[in-house]
């Protein structure tokens, strides 16, 4: 199984403000959808809350320590990351989609990162992606997108693979 992060982050590692994205980038949303479609997505409870509903055509898994967490039908809940990953061990690729604590707790086991680097600073942000030790990662691909009528920020899609030691 390949354990992949997929995330959009600002140049200051900002990911969110008040449980929402600090930007609206339609091409990034399409990239997220096309990359994760048909594959399991693993997230924290706050990320599920921010989505408002489970992502369609994907197995949605939520990590929460809350014993009686009410989730929509079809969403699986695990109280620790190891159980969730073990449950998904037969999958080809699993996507961790947030939030910040989940990324931090799984950084040491992730195999791949799909990062949309949003070229801007977001001082109002209250959720951040953890520090990346670039000595452990190799940039395999990137694709730049300029500001346009639908995108207030320039951004770059990037894919990193963990360097085997």
From TrEMBL:
Keyword Oxidoreductase appears in the UniProt entry: yes
UniProt-listed InterPro entries: DHFR (IPR012259), DHFR-like_dom_sf (IPR024072), DHFR_dom (IPR001796)
GO molecular function, one term: dihydrofolate reductase activity
UniProtKB keywords: NADP, One-carbon metabolism, Oxidoreductase
Reaction catalysed by this enzyme: (6S)-5,6,7,8-tetrahydrofolate + NADP(+) = 7,8-dihydrofolate + NADPH + H(+)
Function description: Key enzyme in folate metabolism. Catalyzes an essential reaction for de novo glycine and purine synthesis, and for DNA precursor synthesis.
Keyword tRNA processing: no
Superkingdom field: Bacteria
PANTHER family: DIHYDROFOLATE REDUCTASE (PTHR48069)
Annotated metabolic or biological route of this protein: Cofactor biosynthesis; tetrahydrofolate biosynthesis; 5,6,7,8-tetrahydrofolate from 7,8-dihydrofolate: step 1/1
One Pfam family named in its UniProt record: DHFR_1
GO CC, alphabetical: cytosol
Domain (DHFR) ranges: 2-162
Family membership: Belongs to the dihydrofolate reductase family.
EC number(s) from the headed UniProt entry: 1.5.1.3
Protein name stated in the entry: Dihydrofolate reductase
One Gene Ontology biological process: dihydrofolate metabolic process
């Amino acid at each position: 199984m390949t354990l992949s992060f997929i995330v959009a982050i600002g140049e200051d590692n900002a990911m969110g403000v008040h449980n929402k994205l600090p930007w609206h980038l339609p091409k990034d949303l399409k990239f997220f959808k096309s990359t994760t479609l048909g594959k399991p997505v693993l997230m924290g409870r706050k990320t599920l809350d921010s989505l408002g509903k489970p992502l369609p055509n994907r197995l949605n898994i939520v990590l929460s320590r809350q014993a009686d967490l009410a989730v929509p039908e079809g969403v699986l809940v695990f109280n620790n990351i190891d159980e969730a990953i073990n449950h998904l061990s037969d999958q080809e690729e699993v996507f961790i989609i947030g939030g910040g604590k989940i990324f931090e707790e799984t950084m040491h086991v992730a195999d791949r990162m799909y990062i949309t680097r949003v070229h801007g600073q977001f001082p109002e942000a209250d959720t951040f992606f953890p520090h990346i030790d670039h000595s452990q990662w190799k940039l395999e691909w990137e694709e730049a997108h300029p500001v346009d009528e639908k995108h207030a920020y320039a951004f770059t899609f990037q894919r990193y693979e963990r360097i085997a030691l």
